[in-house]
Every structure is written in structure tokens, then in C-alpha cells.
Design brief:
The chain is an all-alpha fold. The protein is built from ten helices and two strands; from the N terminus they run E-E-H-H-H-H-H-H-H-H-H-H. A two-stranded antiparallel ribbon has the order 1-2. It is globular, with a radius of gyration of 19 Å. The termini are far apart.
Amino acid sequence: MKEFFGLAGYSDGEYHYLRDAQGAWGWEHLLFVSLLIATMVVLAVFVGRYYKDKSLERKNKPLIISAIAIDSFEIVKIVVLCIRCQDAMHWIYVLPLFLCSVQLIALPMCAFCHGRVREASLDFVMIFGILGAVFGTIGAAQNYNAFPVLSMDNVFSGITHTISGFASLYIIISGLTSMKKKNMPITLGILLGVSVIAYIVNHIIDYNYMFLMNHDGTPYSIFYNMVDGNVVLYPLIVVGLFVIYAVGEYFIVDKIRSRKAPTEK
């Protein structure tokens, strides 16, 4: 267990793993994330179909469980990282300021809020949950180059990302989808607000929240290289892509709904 949590080895004032990382895109990485994604999809389909015809109150139960689970895993990870780094302030480097980790806030809002705030939160989780699950597992090359596959860093990260993906798929399958255009400003407000905060915090503590400063081995490298790492253009492109993706989702759902609606005579 010490090795799983990265507490088995100790040098230079920090705990670390004794095992070497297997590396990104190896069979260990691909097998592990494939199992996570498969489990996420199967659970979402099974649970979503089970609750599809249930009352709104009952439909909310899987979201409550998901919200508690995702925050619990993250809290344990933060505590262990502070112990591992021998730094009580290490939490400033694990704030929910990545697009994926905003779900730590959005999912509880889905489960416990009401009205338009809940609807916009459902939209946010639905739009970015699946995206985060894929990018945070299959696309998280930097994690699998840095840590062993079966380690707290990768296992907990994989679980929290696929909880987001599960919630996203569950919202769609169970019929909880909101995606009302009137709520789009709230959804985009959450996105842009987190982006601005992340950009400011990055400059204060010299970090890379939302990958706004550097691609860090992620697929954002395409755009980083495209503008040669320009400190203005690169973050604008990253945030712009998020906005385009979110707005596109709203219009696609609206288009599908308009086609399904009965034609007025």
C-alpha cells in the first residue's frame, strides 16, 4: 500500500515510487484505460436505463453518489500528495482549475442545486464529462510517463475522470438532459470564469492549470506548436476551442430536438 500511494521510497525530502513508470501508449497504459472506459460505459448504460422511467428524485441518486465519490477520491489524493511532498501547501497545485477537475464542483451542483443553476450544471457535466474522461485517461500521456500505471496518481485520476464520463453518459441515457439555450450563458460563464482564474493563478504560482501555459504532453501540443507557444495566442486558442465545443453541443442538441418535435399543422 505504501508503494501504491508513493510512500515507499524517500529521498531529497520527498516520498516517491520505487517502481519505474511503464510509459505512455504501452500495453499497460492502453489496457488500464480501456478497462476504465469500458466499465464507465457499461455502468452508465445499465444505471441510466434502470433510472430512465423513475421519478426525478430517484434519478438524482446516481448523481449524488457520483458527486460524493469524485470529491472523496480527490480529497484523499490531495492529503496523500501533501504528505508525500512534505508540504502542507501543496494543495495549491491541485486546485479544481483544470477543465476535467471543474467537475469536482459541477457534479455536486447537479446533485444538490435546483433551478437554472442545476440545469446549467447538468449541461456542463454532460458537455465536458465524456471529453474529460477520454483526455484524462487515454490522452493523459504525461501521467503515464511520470508514474507507474497501478499507482495512486494514475488510478485515482482515472477513476475521477471516468466518474465524470459516467455522469455525462448517465445524464443523456436517463433523460436528465437539459441543454436549454437560455442556460448557455451560465454554462459558458462557469467555463470562462474558471479559465480566467486558472490563468491568473498560473502566473502567481508558476503552474499550468487548464494547460493554458504549456501543452505538457497533451494533444494541445498541436495548437502550441502551431503558434510557437505564443503566450497570448495559445491560451486564447485553448479557451476558444472549449467555447466552440460547448456552443456546438447546444446547437446540435437543439437541432436534434427540433427534428424530433411533431410538425405543427
